[in-house]
Amino acid sequence: MDYRKTNAPVTTVTRDLMELCKDTGNIYETVAIIGKRSNQISVEIKNDLSKKLAEFASYNDNLEEVFENREQIEISRYYEKLPKPTLMATQEYIEGKVYYRNPAKEKLQ
């Protein structure tokens, strides 16, 4: 996923709860859906960041020498400036990009 192209706000936004839960009819179910997607996004971002920072890993046991890499700092700053995973997940849910299903409701039908 390309996190730069997300429409998610960087700061917290007040949302209309009734508008958010109109698809499911239950605000708790909506929050659970957004929470699970947020965890998925968080894991993706963490793995992506770990891969990029692994390129700069130093395996020397010399504690006296501290080496700062400018590129490593820029990568870290980029990830710090991204919107939080919960905001990304909420925006995806609002835009209808999140697929979800409830097996309990499917059994009733």
Give an account of the 3D structure.
8% of the residues are buried. By secondary structure, this protein is mostly helical. Helices cover 55% and strands 0% of the residues. The chain is built from 5 helices and no strands. The mean pLDDT is 83.
Instruction: Report the structural category.
Output: mainly alpha
Estimated radius of gyration:
19 Å
Q: Can you count the helices?
A: 5
What is the residue-averaged pLDDT? Answer: 83
Q: Which oligomeric state applies?
A: single chain
Global morphology: elongated
- Percent of residues in helices comes to 55-70%
Give the low-confidence spans.
none
- Say how many strands there are: 0
Hey, roughly how much beta strand do the residues contain? under 5%
Distance between the termini: 34 Å
Summary?
The protein has helices at 17-20, 27-54, 70-81, 85-94, 103-108.
List keywords for this structure.
109 residues; 5 helices; mainly alpha
Map the helices and strands.
Elements: H1 17-20, H2 27-54, H3 70-81, H4 85-94, H5 103-108
Helix pairs in contact: 2-3, 2-4
